């Protein structure tokens, strides 16, 4: 038999209190375990990084949140991550974790199973999401009560392996996510490719539908930033072909075949996808401005997606993030 003992932290963390009365005071008890008088961001606004088993602060003054537990009247980190504080609540945000859905999130998913009046959707979360037949638009944007004949045509709408963009509507009792695609901007995805990044690199923006205009391809490139870390890069659509435009094809929202894509448009799509992948590899948050600037840099340098290797990506990031 053997016994595992936890060693006290080798360094002290610098914490600041928003009220200004906790400051940088650190007390050491008889066991030489550090008890911090404040919790949150370190000096200069830097968030402190902790490892599992590391004491964060006193449980007598702060409440434990996600990623922590209480031991010997101390709040202790249970994961490796950054310390976050909201008033008296202290939590640890893991450096790497699966997507945690919230109501209102825009997500990209893949159909995993077609069931009775529902689809099971893989969104990269701990549990598969559920898209009910009653939560989708019928072809043509028709809004009516779904009937038995609609249930028989479910695979004509969305089949296993299809990608779609949807919104988190609610949660079931077991924690599974309920999605909906009632907006004509949501639904099946075509004419593009998927890039997966860490969910923490996709911030909540005013709009997660981005259009990079020409000269990025003959008709531009469309980018959908899913908050679950799935990014869809596809053939751009003109203003008339978008929702509400005169050329919008409401009957084709569930079409399975891709359109014919010109070579210049293919190069633009792969270049934008390579820019997104390069930003994610450098742990840079992905925004519409960085995507457009990254493509502009690649165009000026005469680089396309196939030529954006690690060295070229470093040059691009140096120019964008400097």
Would you kindly provide a written description of the structure presented here, covering whatever features stand out?
This protein is an alpha+beta fold. The protein is built from five helices and 19 strands. The chain has helices at residues 148-152, 154-157, 263-281, 288-300, 310-321, and strands spanning 26-28, 34-36, 49-50, 55-58, 63-64, 68-71, 74-77, 81-86, 89-94, 106-115, 118-122, 129-136, 163-171, 177-181, 187-188, 192-196, 209-212, 221-225, 230-235. A five-stranded mixed beta barrel has the order 10-11-12-14-13. Strands 3-8-9-5 form a four-stranded mixed sheet, with no helix packed on it. Helix 4 (288-300) crosses helix 5 (310-321). The radius of gyration is 24 Å and the shape is flat.
Helix % is: 10-25%
- How many individual β-strands? 19
Percent in strands:
25-35%
Poorly predicted segments: 1-46
**How confident is the prediction overall: mean pLDDT?**
82
Which strands sit side by side, in order, in the main sheet? 10-11-12-14-13
Measured between the Cα atoms of the first and last residue, the distance is 55 Å
Shape: flat
Radius of gyration: 24 Å
Helix count? Answer: 5
Characteristics of this structure?
5 helices, 29% strand, disordered N terminus, four-stranded mixed beta sheet, alpha+beta, single chain, five-stranded mixed β-barrel, 322 residues, 16% helix
């Amino acid at each position: 038999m053997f016994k595992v003992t936890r060693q006290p932290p080798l360094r002290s963390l610098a914490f600041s209190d928003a009220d200004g009365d906790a400051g940088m005071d650190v007390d050491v008890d008889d066991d030489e375990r550090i008890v911090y008088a404040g919790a949150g961001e370190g000096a200069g606004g830097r968030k402190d990084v902790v490892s599992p088993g590391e004491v964060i602060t006193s449980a007598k003054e702060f409440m434990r949140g996600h990623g922590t537990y209480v031991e010997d009247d101390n709040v202790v980190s249970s994961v490796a991550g950054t310390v976050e504080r909201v008033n008296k609540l202290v939590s640890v945000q893991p450096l790497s974790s699966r997507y945690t859905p919230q109501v209102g999130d825009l997500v990209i998913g893949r159909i995993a199973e077609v069931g009775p009046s529902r689809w099971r959707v893989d969104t990269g979360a701990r549990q598969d999401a559920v898209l009910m037949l009653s939560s989708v638009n019928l072809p043509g944007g028709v809004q009516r009560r779904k009937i038995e004949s609609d249930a028989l045509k479910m695979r004509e709408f969305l089949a296993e392996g299809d990608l779609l963009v949807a919104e988190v509507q609610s949660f079931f009792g077991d924690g599974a996510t309920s999605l909906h695609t009632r907006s004509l901007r949501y639904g099946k995805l075509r004419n593009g490719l998927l890039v997966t990044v860490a969910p923490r690199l996709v911030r909540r923006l005013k709009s997660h539908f981005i259009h990079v205009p020409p000269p990025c391809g003959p008709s531009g490139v469309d980018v959908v930033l899913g908050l679950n870390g799935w990014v869809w890069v596809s053939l751009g659509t003109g203003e008339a072909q978008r929702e509400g435009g005169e050329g919008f094809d409401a009957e084709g929202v569930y079409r399975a075949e891709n359109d014919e894509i010109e070579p210049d448009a293919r190069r633009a799509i792969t270049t934008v996808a390579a820019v997104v992948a390069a930003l994610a590899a450098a742990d840079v948050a992905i925004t519409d401005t960085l995507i457009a600037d990254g493509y502009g840099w690649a165009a000026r340098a005469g680089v396309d997606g196939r030529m954006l290797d690690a060295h070229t990506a470093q040059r691009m990031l140096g120019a964008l993030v400097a």
